[in-house]
């Protein structure tokens, strides 16, 4: 049986709920071999971000080089990239290795409000990384920052998705976790032609730390296996729904989601 591989290029969350830690847990649960290139170390817990320590650009590039010159990968997921310089170095490596199935989660601000991407780097995401990406997965505030438009309704989200496609990315998913208008958690996928809705029950909880990272990592894992974008987004939606529903109840603030809940549910159903 083929071993599928996925690489996450992201920041470390010492609290284990988001970033590299969330990505690797998700890859593992979906039976994909996980690899990582760290962009920054954060001192972080469920209460917030206490420190951000970006790595040297060369350190980021070298980690990716080490993977590209030996193991290779079936998918790449990017998360916290922090600076213009890191974005350019990452884009350069992805292009040089000709990697496909590139999922860009344009992480900008942690749930508690701490910036994880420098303001001036937003343009670099659009210029260097999105043209190489298979799919970009902004939440609503990130889609607003990337397009410069205000997003209130699903109609606005459709317009923003169209604008994002102009960067050269193949598919756009605008997530609905921050939508105050709809009663359900609706994620919108646009393929340049049609819009697809992925809908689930909105769960009343403060424990959503790392939901975006986990969702994008699940899409990358499923694309690595050769699944279609629609199938990958559906699995990611089911994965995050189970992870939010089956809370772990740890930490004193915005707690992490449960990365093993999806597999546990699959076993029970069998
Ligand atoms: N309260 C919730 N109930 C159910 N699903 C949610 C909830 N909050 C977020 N999600 C889902 O989690 C994923 C991440 O959403 P979102 O919160 O928009 O992104 P981010 O974590 O990047 O801010 C999406 O699939 C979204 O639908
Ligand atoms: C290192 C790191 N990367 C990403 C996030 C975003 O997390 P969320 O998925 O909750 O928006 C985070 N808090 N820390």
UniProtKB/TrEMBL annotation:
Gene3D superfamilies, per this entry?
Answer: 3.40.1190.20
* Taxonomic placement: Bacteria, Bacillati, Bacillota, Bacilli, Bacillales
Query: Which InterPro entries does the record associate with it?
Result: HMP/HMP-P_kinase_dom, PM/HMP-P_kinase-1, Ribokinase-like
Q: Does the UniProt entry include the keyword Transport? A: no
Protein name in UniProt: Hydroxymethylpyrimidine/phosphomethylpyrimidine kinase
Q: Which UniProt keywords apply?
A: Kinase, Thiamine biosynthesis, Transferase
Pathway(s) this gene product operates in, as recorded in its UniProt entry: Cofactor biosynthesis; thiamine diphosphate biosynthesis; 4-amino-2-methyl-5-diphosphomethylpyrimidine from 5-amino-1-(5-phospho-D-ribosyl)imidazole: step 2/3; Cofactor biosynthesis; thiamine diphosphate biosynthesis; 4-amino-2-methyl-5-diphosphomethylpyrimidine from 5-amino-1-(5-phospho-D-ribosyl)imidazole: step 3/3
Q: What is its EC number?
A: 2.7.1.49, 2.7.4.7
């Amino acid at each position: 049986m083929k071993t599928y591989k996925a690489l996450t290029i992201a920041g470390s969350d010492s609290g284990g709920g988001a970033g590299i830690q969330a990505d690797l847990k998700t890859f593992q649960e979906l039976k994909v071999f996980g690899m990582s290139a760290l962009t920054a170390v954060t001192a972080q817990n469920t209460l917030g971000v206490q420190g951000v320590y970006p790595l040297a650009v060369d350190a980021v590039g070298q980690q990716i080089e080490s993977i590209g010159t030996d193991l290779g990968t079936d998918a790449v997921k990017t998360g916290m990239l922090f600076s213009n310089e890191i974005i350019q170095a990452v884009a350069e490596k992805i292009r040089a290795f000709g990697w496909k199935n590139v999922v860009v989660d344009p992480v900008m601000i942690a749930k508690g409000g701490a910036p994880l991407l420098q303001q001036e780097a937003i343009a670099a995401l659009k210029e260097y990384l999105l043209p190489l990406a298979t799919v970009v997965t902004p939440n609503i505030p990130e889609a607003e920052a990337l397009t410069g438009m205000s997003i209130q309704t699903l109609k606005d989200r459709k317009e923003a998705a169209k604008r994002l496609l102009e960067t050269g990315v193949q598919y756009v998913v605008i997530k609905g976790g921050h939508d105050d208008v709809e009663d359900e958690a609706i994620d919108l996928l646009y393929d340049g032609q049609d819009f697809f809705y992925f809908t689930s029950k909105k769960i009343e909880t403060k424990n959503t730390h790392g939901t975006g990272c986990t969702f994008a990592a699940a899409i990358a894992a499923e694309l690595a296996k050769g699944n279609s974008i629609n199938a990958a987004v559906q699995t990611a939606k089911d994965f995050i729904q189970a992870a939010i529903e089956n809370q772990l109840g740890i930490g004193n603030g915005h707690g992490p989601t449960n990365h093993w809940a999806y597999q546990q549910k699959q076993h029970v159903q069998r």
